[in-house]
From TrEMBL:
GO terms for molecular function: thiosulfate-cyanide sulfurtransferase activity. Pfam families: Rhodanese. This is Rhodanese-like domain-containing protein. Residues 22-119 form the Rhodanese domain. It comes from Pontivivens ytuae. InterPro entries: Rhodanese-like_dom, Rhodanese-like_dom_sf. SUPFAM superfamilies: Rhodanese/Cell cycle control phosphatase. It comes from the Bacteria. Gene3D superfamilies: Rhodanese-like domain (3.40.250.10).
Amino acid sequence: MVAEANTVVEHIPAADALGLVEHPDVQFIDLRDVREVHREGHIPGDYHCPRGMLEFWLDPTSEYAKSVFQQDKKYVFYCAAGMRSALAARTAQEMGLRNVAHIEDGFAGWRAAGGPVKERLRIL
């Protein structure tokens, strides 16, 4: 399924995505579970959308819709290793979100490429 999603969705190596991190027309979307985010940190300026909520937050007719998905931006999804983000990006694209991509090697690739990481406050 991931390989199939990558045939229809733009996939970017983390090293190439580094140049997009401060671009005003790019919104990074972190799909990881909140425990992953708290344990490992996240990309500065991203928006956290747990994978299980994507369809609800993305659909403008949903009572759970989030305004972050109603902007004219490039959306770059990421997860830990690039599998969840491939499937989520495909779903978002099928739901009508334009200009969607994902980091093919995920947050692990981001860290390996020397990308900036912001730590989350720990929950006690």
